[in-house]
Batch of 3 targets.
Target 1
Amino acid sequence: MKRIGILTSGGDSQGMNAAVRAIARSAMSAGLEAYGINYGFKGLVEGNIFKMNSKELDGIINRGGTILYSARFPEFAQEEVQLQGIEQLKKFGIDALVVIGGDGSYHGAEKLTKHGYNSIGVPGTIDNDIPGTDFTIGFDSAVNVATEALDRINDTATSHQRTFVVEVMGRGAGDIALWAGIAAGADAIVIPERDYDIEAIANKIKENRKNGKDHALIVIAEGVMSAQEFKEKLDQYGDFDSRAVTLAHIQRGGVPTAKDRVLASRLGDYAVRLLLEGKGGLAIGIHDNKLVATDIIDTLENHKHKTDVSLLDLNDRLRF
């Protein structure tokens, strides 16, 4: 093996650049060449590929977004398009590919693996919804951004005796809502992984007001419904002077936390070491603070990410 390709795909997440840096520099330190692929699988098929050097990797470990850019490319689900991508890899003499991204990106790497092309998936998404790993690159940063925003909103809620319903990202997973909600002391957290009762939440807000707490903070995962829709349903049970806020894409940008930078560095280096051992077709991650690798086909087809819903029980015990 002489050349490794690197691409980022799907939604960007803080720490992707740190992962790109780790993969490229780890490859270079082993005497390999690293090739960057711009615009994800779209760039792969179009041949938007270039040789990376050490200098251009300087100063990117602390940058949000991805220097390799990203693009949605649903056409890669088609076999003929996948084969076009493989032809580009052969054209540039790239022996193996490391894909940094979320669920859709992993499925792209899985398709290449099924065609016999050596690919490794590195979990890069704020949603933390990838099977085979406890945490994904960008999750910790997104939770910290969301927590800071919730703290600020809670200040306003207190000043004006209002109820705020705040929608956070996460796609179909409730991890960001859970972690940020607990960290911000939310009165209620609503996630897709567990049934919820709006009337019970409304009654608790009323009870709290009778006991002297005249404001409330509700955190809802986007996979449940929008903040505005939840607010409108909540208002059917009383006048809470409620407001709906959607945090949206601010959660995906900005400086990655130290935890995400270290995680990205560990995972990127691990991917290269596995390839040097002749191993591929893998999804890598971290479990109990130990680096792990699982078969990417089996991981995607037979396993699902499990949100730790016990954290919801924790919040229920601590909120009153």
Note: DSSP finds eleven helices and eleven strands in the chain.
Target 2
Amino acid sequence: MAGEPSAVAVLVLGLLDERPRHPYDVFTTLVERGDARLVRVNPGAVYHAVQRLERDGLVEAVGTERCGNRPERTTYSVTPAGRATLGRAVTAYLADHRPAYADFPVGLAHAPGLPADEVAAALTTRRDREAARLADLRDRLDEALALGLPRRFVLDGERELALLEREVAWLDEVLRDLADGTLTWGGPPPDDFLAARERRQARVDAHPG
């Protein structure tokens, strides 16, 4: 696989490193574990990832299995090269410093150009959806831990839970401030701000470096 493996490829490698699986088993396991929330994944994406990984020598076919009257399915396992690639990729992901670009901050940056009621309606939609995700994720984590899964296996979910808790709380705060007028809305930036910005820029231009 040229360059860095994709996030889907890393997830596939991780599951095949646990034990040999056929691609559909990989997909269903991703869904069962909730890992499908990490990337946009479907059976086709998993099959494509397995094909590329096999082409690049990172996984290999190790057998076939049959379930009932269904066609035989090829099972795959990670090769030594695949295991090394997985280790490098996971280490790089953990230390990754590249910024993640998302649409929501762009919306926030340009929200002042919309009427307050439209902004409140859109943020309410987001808040309700994220609150539902938060409740579902919390239930999933509680269930997994109650069944005896060690915490080290759910650190990704634990981090997402913390981020969702903070985002829902922040959205509640913004919506409350919009409703009671604490967060003022409408009009261009105030003249005092524009004047202060011009004075600061003039000082920078007068003393470059």
Note: The chain has eight helices and two strands.
Target 3
Amino acid sequence: MMTKADRVRWWTYLLLALATLACLFPLYWMFVVATTDTATATRLPPEIVPGGNFFHLAGLVFTTVPFIRSIVNSLVVAGTIGVGHAVLCSLAGFAFAKLRFPGRNALFLIVVLTMTVPTQLAVIPQYMIISSLGWVDTLQALIVPGLASAFGIFWMRQHLGATISDEIMHAARIDGANTWQIYWRIAFPLVRPAAFVLGLLGFVTAWNDFLWPFIVLKSPEMYTAQIAIKALQNSFTVDLGLAMSGSFLATLPLLVLFVFVGRRMVAGIMDGAFKG
């Protein structure tokens, strides 16, 4: 006889399976379109079986734009930003959570308030700064503005405040440790799972960014993956098969990344949930 707990478990697994299918279907549809042409992609009822043109369209992607160079550029930009988020945001969060200095609360309030400002409003002043530095059409124009974020600082500040006790700080200072040693040898190892998740989120955000790279990058050899996909389209028509083939190829590195670090990411999120 099925108990109440078994019924709950059955519905739970059913909902999880439906949610998984709903999340995977856009990726599957992208692959289906990437193996066909525009006419097939717009046919009603739509085709749900992959065609046989994927390798042909993938070859066109690599010959139309410098796609491999674009993937490498995206890896450099997203990887540097991911590391910057993990280190710089945790460092700023440690300062706001555990150090006492004049104006700490006011500065933290300003950081939090910047999250209410739409990203588009910062495009013009940010471009003026990048242009004055001579960084237009360079990768540092993408890397430097994204090395830290207000959300990352806020999240690490909350996590460090709940994880590192004042007693540990006092004991470390009695043992002769300075502020940097306390952060690097005590605080950062304890919050490393949360910093890893934050870095991964920063990596994905930088990988998928389109607006800012589209503004500052001019040369094809400087394109990131998202700008290379845009370059596959001309001004009048869009070859859906070619565009979706490039999108699918640009998604593969993220899928590979999540295959290797997905378990660790979930563990870091759950660690932060229990401690926060």
Note: The first helix runs from residue 4 to 34.
